[in-house]
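lol ok so funny story. i was supposed to be doing the assay writeup but got distracted and ended up predicting the structure for this chain instead. priorities right. anyway since i did it might as well share w the group, maybe its usefull for someone
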Amino acid sequence: MEKAVHSSTTSGPAVPGEVTKTGTAIIDTAASAVQSFAPVNQIHQHLCAFHFYAHDMTRQVEAHHFCSHVNEEMRQCLIYDGPDANARLIGLEYIVTEKLFMTLPDEEKKLWHSHEWEVKGGFLFMPSVPGPIQRQDLDKVAKTYGKVFHFWQVDLGHELPIGLPNVMMAVTRDGQLFHEMIQEAEKRFGVSIEGERDSRASMTGPELGIHPLANGGGKGLKLELREVDIKPVESVAKVFV
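and the output, tada:
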């Protein structure tokens, strides 16, 4: 059985494969000179947080979110296992306001987690951004909900993305995160979780309070693969003549 450990850096096992060749790099450079990267160019902020697997809170991962606004009520984030150029893309998160969250079906709400304590507890921060500046935006984030899937189980030392996507959750109270993981992050990014907690004491969460169905409804969640019969092509409606 594989042993799960918390993951907090990009120093895990190297991804198998040859080093990128010069010819490939030249093609990449030429293509990047003429192509538009509009979606990723909208990324405007880097958030560092900690996720745990929705079915196993002992498996915890440092998650670096690179986010863009879809509009004032929704953000979308690419999640990497670190902030460096060699970081692995391990997941994604959608972040919505309480207003949008409340429009979701009840079964869907269970897949979303609250951000109130993650922010107020100081566990979510913007590396290198001065506290007073980041707190202006995090005051908004504290009132939101997020839906996260991780595709790469770096905490198990996997060299490649293996298995089904995993639903992830965020901290909702003290004592859930490994203390050593928090200390490592504080040292690397020069932040004080406790100091930020004191500075964010006046922040508030969702106006209606944390919804009881959020955060898995208090239960563990895990995706499972189920085989089903595939409809034959003949049964698909013909839309082209």
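DSSP finds eight helices and seven strands in the chain. The beta strands are 45-53, 56-71, 74-80, 89-96, 112-114, 145-150, 166-170.
back to the writeup now i swear
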